[in-house]
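Quick one: sequence plus flavin-adenine dinucleotide SMILES, need structure tokens.
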Amino acid sequence: MGIPSYTLLPHEATCQSPHDGSIATALERSEEGHPAMKIVVCVKYVPDATADRTFNSDNTVDRTGVDGVLSELDEYAVEEALKIRDAGDDCEIVVLTVGPDVARSAILKSLQMGADAGVHVLDDAIHGSDAVGTSLVLAKAIERQQADLVVCGMASTDGSMSVVPAMVAERLGLPQVTFGSQVTVDGTTVRVRRDGDAATETIEGTLPLLLSVTDQANEPRYPSFKGIMAAKKKPVDVLSLSDLGVAAGDVGADAAWTKVQQSQQRPARSAGTIVTDEDGTGAAKLVEFLAGQKFV
Amino acid sequence: MSEILVLVDHTDGVIRKTTAELLTFARRLGEPAAVFVGAGIDSARDALRQYGAEKIYVLDDPELSDYLVVPKAEALAQLVEQAQPAAVLIPSHAEGKEIAGRVAIKASSGLITDAVDIEAGDNGPITTQSVFAGSYTVTATVTHGTPIITVKPNSVTPEAVDAAATEDHFNPVISESAKTAKIVDRSPREATGRPELTEAAIVVSGGRGTGGKFEPVEDFADSLGAAVGASRAAVDSGWYPHAFQIGQTGKTVSPQLYIATGISGAIQHRAGMQTSKTIVAVNKDDEAPIFELVDFGVVGDLHAVLPRAAAQVRARKG
Ligand SMILES: Cc1cc2nc3c(=O)[nH]c(=O)nc-3n(C[C@H](O)[C@H](O)[C@H](O)COP(=O)(O)OP(=O)(O)OC[C@H]3O[C@@H](n4cnc5c(N)ncnc54)[C@H](O)[C@@H]3O)c2cc1C
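Reply:
Sure thing.
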């Protein structure tokens, strides 16, 4: 099977590279009286991880039946952006989400934490999109913002794909520095420490770029009362696919490049044997079990 | 028969077990072709042949290793274009998934991540994934382009098949913009002498219940030849390095045997171990949620149970 060439598919709709000048540089913006740096934080509304999560009959994730929250891991992304601003960088923080009506609560929470403005891409046609479709919508929305820095969480707490940031960066022609457990921004240089499997690495990149942070990077703040009040007045732009110039046929379940064939609840594990170590025999029984299973 | 590209995971030519696993899956789908990026092919050749690589694409441009993700993605996409494989298999670690995400966009191809099984189907590979902290199993196919699939470690037992391992040097064209995120410093972690956490057949992990004393956990692990893991509570307390954290924001493990000691079994921890074949727990609280998962559980103090168990394992092993 080769790579068929199609027209009007998300790949062809790839956003322009910021390196070709389509995105204003920080300097140009500050000369126009705008903040020197624009940070876009991608956040996701997800079903609460502690609730029972299910699939709809069309094999998409049921995002309505359970209470939703701002993906916990995205709070670290919002916090990292706030830290950069707190460190004195003149910047504007826009939080971006793609999702149904209720997803607005993810934006609201971010605004309460201190972000400046929100963008909510809301369109029924997006339902059922896979990472390819989602990344197209995000990339188009980020392109409009002319971001210098895009910040993401390390994974979503539901789909756990971890690939959307890489796809967004690819579409925008941006380098990516991901899984940062410690981040410093110095002018246009971003330095990140990451704890890999075999080594601790320091990565250096130059803006514009896409950054993702782990739950080790910071401690997300709780919204203050002042923050909660202020959030009510902050602007949230609600955009449709046509506002972004994305064709409805390029997203949603029908445009997905993957298809779920079956989703099946795993049978509950059959109840195991539990012994109590009251008389000090717990260890012997444990080793007996391990030997019976041929682990010893 | 079409080629199935397998991105080789190695350190200076020493291939990791996941590579043998991916080659084993590749053989179910077509003709396995290993893609070896970086230095050290001389050390890797025999292992790749032994696990069934009919072909080895060698990409030894040093620039591919100094920069993050993007050059490798460019190279792999160019190879996909040239070799026209029927699928591309990539290890499911952080870098693997990022490479996969970029290649999928470059090659206009569907991507499936974290597969735990792959079978050949009439319309291309059928993958199995485990989602929602292991509570659902999902089968999926790629419907567009070349299936790009990332595969979790320990998903299949590697099968040894002697293959041709014909070598083919491939020189990709790396763009300047691919070189903007550079690895400027690298300090390798001290070797523990234990098996690699995500590849180990047995994992023994410790949580808050260790009270900071990991020696009994490590010693029991050593008696079994196991890797050692930790809960986030133990990592956050500074008792064990983050690289050994198991769970949603740490490593996902799927060993033959997982032994949780002094760990309550929070959903975020389960997300990283729930697909283990056999699960054992030692916890002093008989109501700890971890006991809902276990095949065998001991209600007791780990500081008493583990040293005795380690001694008895050693006695049995002679
Ligand atoms: C966004 C997010 C991501 C997270 N990611 C992860 C993750 O990747 N991995 C992870 O593990 N957690 C993660 N967590 C944290 C998770 O929610 C739990 O807090 C954590 O797993 C608890 O660790 P624990 O079981 O060691 O500690 P506890 O929940 O405090 O449990 C300790 C257990 O030890 C038992 N115990 C105490 N003393 C003894 C003794 N002497 N002998 C035997 N048993 C004893 C107790 O009965 C108790 O059950 C995450 C949380 C969030 C919010």
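The longest strand of chain B covers residues 111-119. The pocket of flavin-adenine dinucleotide is lined by residues A 72-73, 215; B 207-209, 231-234, 245-250, 262-264, 266, 268-269, 272, 282-285, 288, 301-303 (CB under 6 Å).
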